[in-house]
């Protein structure tokens, strides 16, 4: 049954899925939309959708995501709406092979087929030539890939703030500092939510978009088969203004063979890098999450919540050396465990909870949702209006049985060992110089 547009809809979570969904529903004439979020300030400081930057790429081996990313990029270019949130620096995609069967190769085919401005780079000389003259880069020996000029990066926090403001301008209600502890149900159907302060909010429809907190915050939904909270390791290097001038016109570098990626410096002259990997789980037994991976952030641990494993600090510096060797000689100015909600196959979860038409699960960004901020809520709105294509209903179903693992990720999931986290000293002294430890 299609929901009347004056019915109450509550969206739990003010991240990428939640805010975009609210925006698209309001655009379609729904009049009673409320976003609630646990964080007293929005965008939430520890949310994956609130960060220095996020890659905006159409380079996917799955043509559906390539098409949707191309649509999102068209929206990002609307300066009147997004300002300078999106920076079209280009994305250097590495990881091609002679066999033409890697993730990067399949991505190249989709980019070409859908009209992206791409240039094949078949050797190290061609790769180095895409960087501005005088940029000190590694030799890229044995590497191949392509440059997608129809891509770049977005200021993640700025994009979230702008869309939150749009939601408010459309008379959507945004309630920060409201921690939902229970989905209220009657006769198997959702009828609202209860917050930790005792507040009860009734609703004809609840959209659960709580990101990496979804499995642990709502264990009764038993989403562990399709959702897993994983910490992804990020590091930053603070440049001087003079140093930033050298790298400011570089493309985003994304190596699918290793998962390593790095941005050009932002306005604060910070270079951010990370590894797109299977990540780390954390089981917070003290808070009753012995069986469910739970985000561990600066909110839950203000002292060490941003630290990453020492081994990853070394890995990041090694990969950095293979792109920008001069920067590998500099200390890291900070680190972060950025928490994703991953699905086993890398596809999002956008679907009605089994046998409950009044509860929609919209999550499992799997580390690649932010670039779709302008359009991802359209998919949820289509589901609300029973317009979502049948193949997408199957693709994103809560109860689907994933067959293939996420092809874009590297490594195996590891459990976070708190005794092996880095210290400030690990960041200040480069661990890898000329292939040797100091």
Quaternary organization: single chain
Task: Report the average pLDDT across residues.
Answer: 95
**Per CATH, which architecture of the domain at 1-53 and 155-227 and 344-404?**
3-Layer(bba) Sandwich
Shape: globular
Fraction in helix: 10-25%
Protein described:
The protein starts with 8 loop residues before the first strand and ends in a 10-residue tail after the last helix. It contains 12 helices and 22 strands. The longest helix is centred in the N-terminal third of the chain and has 14 residues, at 63-76. α1 (16-27) packs parallel to α6 (156-169) and α1 packs across α10. It has a domain at 1-53 and 155-227 and 344-404: FAD/NAD(P)-binding domain. The strands form 5 sheets. An 8-stranded mixed sheet has the order 6-7-5-15-16-17-14-19, sandwiched between helices. The chain is globular. The model is unreliable at 431-438 (pLDDT under 50). With 438 residues, it is α/β, with parallel strands linked by helices.
């Amino acid at each position: 049954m299609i929901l009347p547009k004056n019915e109450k809809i509550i969206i739990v979570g003010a991240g990428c899925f939640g805010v975009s969904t609210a925006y698209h529903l309001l655009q379609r004439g729904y009049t009673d939309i409320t976003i609630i979020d646990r964080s007293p300030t929005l965008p939430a400081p520890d949310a994956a959708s609130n960060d220095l930057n996020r890659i905006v790429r159409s380079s996917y081996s799955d043509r559906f995501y390539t098409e949707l990313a191309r649509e999102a990029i068209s929206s990002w270019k609307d300066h009147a709406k997004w300002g300078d949130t999106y920076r079209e620096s280009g994305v250097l995609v590495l990881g091609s092979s002679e066999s033409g069967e890697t993730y990067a190769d399949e991505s190249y085919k989709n980019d070409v087929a859908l009209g992206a401005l791409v240039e094949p780079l078949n050797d190290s000389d061609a790769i180095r030539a895409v960087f501005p003259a005088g940029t000190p880069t590694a030799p890229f020996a044995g590497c191949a890939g392509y440059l997608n000029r129809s891509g770049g990066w977005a200021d993640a926090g700025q994009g979230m703030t702008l869309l939150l403001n749009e939601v408010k301008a459309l008379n959507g209600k945004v309630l920060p500092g409201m921690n939902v502890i229970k989905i209220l149900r009657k006769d198997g159907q959702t009828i609202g939510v209860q917050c930790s302060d005792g507040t009860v909010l009734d609703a004809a429809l609840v959209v659960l978009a709580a990101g990496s907190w979804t499995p642990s915050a709502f264990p009764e939904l038993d989403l562990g088969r399709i959702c897993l909270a994983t910490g992804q390791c990020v590091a930053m290097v603070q440049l001087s203004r003079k140093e930033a001038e050298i790298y400011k016109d570089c493309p985003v570098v994304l190596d699918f063979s290793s998962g390593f990626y790095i941005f050009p410096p932002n306005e604060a002259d910070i270079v951010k890098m990370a590894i797109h990997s299977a990540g780390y789980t954390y089981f917070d037994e003290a808070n009753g999450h012995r069986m469910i991976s739970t985000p561990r952030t600066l909110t839950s641990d203000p002292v060490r919540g941003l630290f990453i494993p020492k081994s990853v600090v070394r890995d990041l510096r090694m990969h950095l050396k293979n792109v920008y060797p001069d920067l590998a000689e500099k200390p890291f100015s900070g680190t972060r465990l950025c928490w994703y909600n991953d699905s086993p196959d890398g596809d999002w979860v956008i679907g009605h909870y089994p046998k409950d038409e009044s509860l929609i699960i919209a999550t499992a960004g799997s580390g690649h949702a932010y670039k779709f901020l302008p359009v991802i809520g359209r998919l949820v709105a289509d589901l609300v209006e029973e317009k979502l294509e049948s193949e997408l209903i199957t693709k994103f179903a809560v109860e689907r049985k994933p067959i293939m693992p996420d092809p874009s990720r590297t490594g195996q999931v590891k459990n976070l060992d708190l005794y092996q986290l880095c210290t400030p000293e690990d960041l200040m002294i480069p661990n890898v110089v000329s292939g040797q430890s100091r």
